């Protein structure tokens, strides 16, 4: 799967948390979300005078809210592809709130905010190690392998 196909697939399966996603679908979409988020922060920096230390710039928050659901769903499908539950990503998403100083300015600099950010980074690193793994080679409880069709059922 290429970059454009990945973006189309992830937005077409916007809130589809079932099935499986290949590594290429997941990683291309992660690259897209990174480019779009940092692009939005750059526009906020140029147009509105925000600094790059301001994580929750207005346009970046809008972009994050738009890509949050497809990002969570492609991550769940990627976890399914290696045989894990999609709920494994929950600690990472729960700790993201520490990055948004919108609700409580200065929260990310507090002990609680800093602790949540550290836990989030550790959770993300652990999740990253899981997401790097290759697909389970055959059909698992989440569906057939998206890379190769399950030929065992074709000839039975």
Describe the structure.
- By secondary structure, this protein is an all-alpha fold.
- It has 5 helices and no strands.
- Helix 1 (3-12) packs across helix 2 and helix 2 (23-48) packs antiparallel against helix 3.
- The model has no long low-confidence stretch (mean pLDDT 85).
Pick out its properties.
156 residues
Give a short account of the largest sheet: none
Overall geometry: globular
Approximate helicity band: 55-70%
The whole-angstrom Rg is: 18 Å
Mean pLDDT: 85
Overall number of strands? 0
Span between termini: 29 Å
Class based on secondary structure composition and strand pairing: mainly alpha
Quaternary structure classification: single chain
Give me the number of helical elements: 5
**Share in β-strands:** under 5%
Low-confidence blocks of residues: none
The H-and-E topology, N to C, reads as HHHHH
Summarize the structure.
By secondary structure, this protein is mainly α.
How are the elements arranged and paired?
Blueprint: H1 3-12, H2 23-48, H3 58-81, H4 90-95, H5 111-131
């Amino acid at each position: 799967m290429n970059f454009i196909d990945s973006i189309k697939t992830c937005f077409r399966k916007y809130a589809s948390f079932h099935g499986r996603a290949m590594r290429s679908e997941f990683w291309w979409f992660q690259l897209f979300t990174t480019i779009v988020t940092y692009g939005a922060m750059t526009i906020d920096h140029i147009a509105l005078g925000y600094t790059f230390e301001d994580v929750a710039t207005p346009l970046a928050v809008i972009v994050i809210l738009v890509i949050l659901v497809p990002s969570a769903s492609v991550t769940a499908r990627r976890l399914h592809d290696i045989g894990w539950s999609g709920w494994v990503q929950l600690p990472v998403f729960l700790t993201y709130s520490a990055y948004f100083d919108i609700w409580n300015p200065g929260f990310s600099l507090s002990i609680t905010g800093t602790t949540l950010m550290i836990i989030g980074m550790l959770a993300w690193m652990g999740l990253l190690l899981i997401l790097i793994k290759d697909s389970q080679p055959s059909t698992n409880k989440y569906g057939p392998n998206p890379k190769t069709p399950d030929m065992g059922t074709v000839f039975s």
